[in-house]
Amino acid sequence: MNSAAHEPAQRLRALVTGAGRGIGRAIALRLGEEGALVACAARSEHEIERVARAVDDAGGRGAAIPMDVTDLASVEEGVHRALEFTGGAFDIVVNNAGVFSVHAFDAMSPATWYRTLAVNLNGPYHVTLMSLRGLEQSERAHLFNISSIAGRQAFEGNAAYCASKFGLRGLSDVLRLEWAARGIRVSTIYPGGTDTTIFDDVPGDWDRSTMNQPADVADVLWAAYLAPHDANVADLDVPNPRLA
Q1: Of the candidates 179, 181, 163, the residue with the CA atom closest to the CA atom of residue 129
Q2: Res 19: pLDDT
Q3: Alpha-carbon gap, residue 29 to 18, rounded angstroms
Q4: Which residues have a Cβ under 8 Å from the Cβ of 125 and sit 6 or more positions away?
Q5: Rounded to an integer, what distance in angstroms lies between the CA atom of residue 191 and that of residue 213?
Q6: 5 φ, ψ (degrees, to nearest 5)
Q7: Among 4, 26, 77, 240, which residue carries the largest CB count within 10 Å?
Q8: What is the pLDDT of residue 4?
């Protein structure tokens, strides 16, 4: 549902990574419902093309932006295309692209460690670095980093994932301090287990019916964007009504 009574007068301009599925897709569609221009970024071109069309159907305007967040050159090109689409500015940038796997530390390959850090931590660094010029052109700029409860507490089998998400929290905290004078808000969102395709290939007995839904994360993000500028939206949990 549109929040017309609270919607900013200017059409929102957003970049969402990992937008092809799951949480990223839900965020892109929610922003589309609010009439936003949404640059939908991911490696999977066929998926982001579908999401961009769904953003159009929801009432916004979507653009599919191929991007590999682990590759700085790819991010630079993708952000350039996204800024062309949005007219040179970003009101919202969402670092959502991520990978997840479960391995005991001594059973985890170095390749898994490197890949997890490359996507989950280097990726947000690349996207944020290249997006800063677009954020600086907005009067209500907001950077969202999608972390995890694994960015606050340790879980067995999650050495690489926890390291990446704890690192993302640290990056957010530093940017919040450095960018306060520029008027750029920085929020870290900490979803619990969320029912997305990320769990399709993860071993274990997961009760996905009790997990958060991707739309729950999108709701938290949108509420934070609408919050008064002096509101504390630094670290955001995601309520799960299914566990109430």
Answers
A1: 179
A2: 97
A3: 13
A4: 171
A5: 10
A6: -70, -20
A7: 26
A8: 39
| Distance separating alpha carbons of residues 93 and 99, to the nearest angstrom | 19
Please give the pLDDT value at position 146: 97
- State residue 239's pLDDT score: 77
CA atoms within 13 A on the CB side of 35: 10
Q: Which residues of the chain have pLDDT under 70?
A: 1-9, 194-211, 242-244
**CB distance 98 to 147 below 8 Å:** no
Domains of the chain: 13-239 (3.40.50.720)
pLDDT score, position 212:
75
- pTM score: 0.90
Residue 125 designated active-site: no
Q: What is the pLDDT of residue 201?
A: 63
Label residue 88 left, alpha or beta by phi (over 0 means left) and psi (-120 to 50 means alpha).
Answer: left
pLDDT of 200: 55
* Signed CA dihedral, 70, 74, 77, 83: sign only: negative
Q: Which of 114, 125, 161, 225 is catalytic?
A: 161
| DSSP assignment of 167-205 | HHHHHHHHHHHHHGGGT-EEEEEE--SB-SGGGTT--S-
